[in-house]
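sorry for the late reply, my laptop died twice this morning and i had to redo everyting from scratch. anyway the thing you sent over, i finally got around to it. pasting the sequence first so we're on the same page, its 233 residues, then the predicted structure underneath. double check i copied it right bc i was rushing
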Amino acid sequence: MASFFLKTWSLCGFLILGGCASGPIPTLTVYETPQSFVRLETDPSLGQETGHSHPVDISTERMAAALRGIIVQEPLTRLPLYDDLSIPRRHPAFSESEIEFWAPLFRLALSKATPDELVTFYQSQPLSGMKREVTSGGLFLDGEELHVVLSNYRSQTLSSGDTSSADTMDDRLTPLRSLAPQKGKLSFEPSEFQRPADPISVASLFHWDRRELIIHVNRLPLTPTASKPTPVR
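ok and here's the structure:
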């Protein structure tokens, strides 16, 4: 009898730990390197909702226009030892080279996504010493509105080479999780193409740091962009 209860508790403990450790499982990898990826994942926040407007065909030029309009406004107080003062306080979130890289991958991912999936992305850059900076998030389309979630913007974390860090690789597994409270505010230019976010609800309180822009993507003026990253099927 004691052996039976021991096995039962062991099984329960395994299931509990497994449940805690589990997260959204990627359903398709569109592009992946050790430093970056674009994936599809099941959207756990949908619940009983009908789902997103996927698959959808958005041109690379239109996707580039959406990324080009995302603006970061840094806090008023910035510290020389911790913040890059060479960057203007108000600046684009993505450089032109980053836009040329991400835009065709996001277009491809949205064309393959199902209504219950969203696109996640991740990029890690090494800094001096053992630190890295991570930019990650997700995007999906509802109707004609493109939702862009920037969960991490140049968030600093320890390198995987630092064995004293307990959370070195989780940032690759959870691109929608903020590694730290995100500084600054997000906005979109031109502002007439941004829809205000919905009022705060009880459900949204669980997304305490979800920085999300809602863009009228099909109305954006286009600027041609060339981009050639090779997707991984």
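Residues 1-22, 161-168, 201-208, 225-233 have pLDDT under 50 and may be disordered.
thats about all i looked at so far, will dig more tmrw
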